[in-house]
Amino acid sequence: MTANPTVQAKPQALIDGGFPAGGLMSLPAVQWARANLFSNWINTAVTLVFAYFILKGLFGFLSWGVFNAIWSAPDSRLCREAKGVGACWALITEKYRFILFGTYAYDEQWRPAIVIVIFIALYVASAMRRFWNRNLVFIWVGGLALIGVLMWGGILGLKYVENERWGGLPLTLSLATFGIAFAFPLSILLALGRRSRLPAIKAMCVGYIELIRGVPLISLLFMASVMFPLFLPEGVTFDKLLRAQVAIIMFTAAYLAEVVRGGLQAIPKGQFEAADALGLGYWQKTGMIIMPQALRLVIPPLVNTFIGLFKDTSLVVIIGLFDLLNAVKAAIQEPQWRGFGVEAYISVSIIYFIFCFAMSKYSQKIEADFAQARNR
To answer: pTM, whole model, 2 decimals?
Structure first.
């Protein structure tokens, strides 16, 4: 009887147990480990030493932070009796509302909770290409308007809450979001102005960029909070949150302008000449040909600046605003919870890491998509 040729043509990819025909040693992960971690006796020794310390640190952290941890307690008595053997996560379960929402009215904290969800939804929508059209502008306008209504209140039966009571994560997200949204277009204008052939425009842009980049952000916040009101007419005042937001926008725009200018300088001269040959005007050439290529080249430094801005919002404590980090600092100042700052800072660092890591991974995805499109 002749064997079925179709059956004979199929290779035996797996052996009993589900492993490849070559056994465990043919697995890609095993081959990579042999080539990179155990290629010789020196690499093997270094790998084993590092693995020992990593595992020892991991087991130590799990023992402190999970197995022997205190997750809930009415006060710090149980945590102090533990004497550092286990983490005191009871601080977080007791103070999480203050950490997330600051001094916002306790019975109204469902409003900033919804605001956090709206911000995350806006970020997710902006990351999805199906929304990369004119509708995204309306989504953001509607979302920000809803955020303003929820945070301030005073209408639709909502209790008015002054922004001096804002704090925690909603304040951090607000400062970072508006800072990026307004600083980015301003930075493009500054970068174009610095490359302008008009001496007056170029001088103003260069002066602004160098002046702002020459001072720390905390000094701008101090000026906005203390010095700026002194120059206003009597009876004219601006909200300190608005002043802080303007200072953050000005500071971020100066740094982003240099990033954008670096991308413009990297564009080959032939691109400018080709655009001129097509008869395009200055703004058509810049908006349709030059600027998209420049921004594509500087995605990593742009995102790096955005991440720095997100973390720099903690400096608003200089003017009496308590963002996420400073709410944690205030929470551990209570006498009964002093000495448990490690747990508090670990918790808030996880929140910062999630947002910053998401921005980093998304920028890598955009770079990969652009590279794939360019190689087609």
So the answer is: 0.80
